[in-house]
Fold this sequence. Notes:
By secondary structure, the protein is mostly helical. 75% of the residues lie in helices and 0% in strands.
Amino acid sequence: MILNISAVLLFGAASxxxxxxxxxxxxxxxxxFLFGFFAAGTGxxxxxxxxxQACAEALNDLG
Length: 63
């Protein structure tokens, strides 16, 4: 039997578990969550990609 699990579900559960057990901070959980979206290539990829790109460009303009 083959079990398929969405990368979004897997990384979401991993980040929730990490935050709940306090083994990782909120920043690490956000990185795991975003990586799940980028890896899965879901329909939410485009809006999240635009937000991350805008944040990166804003940080680049600050420096």
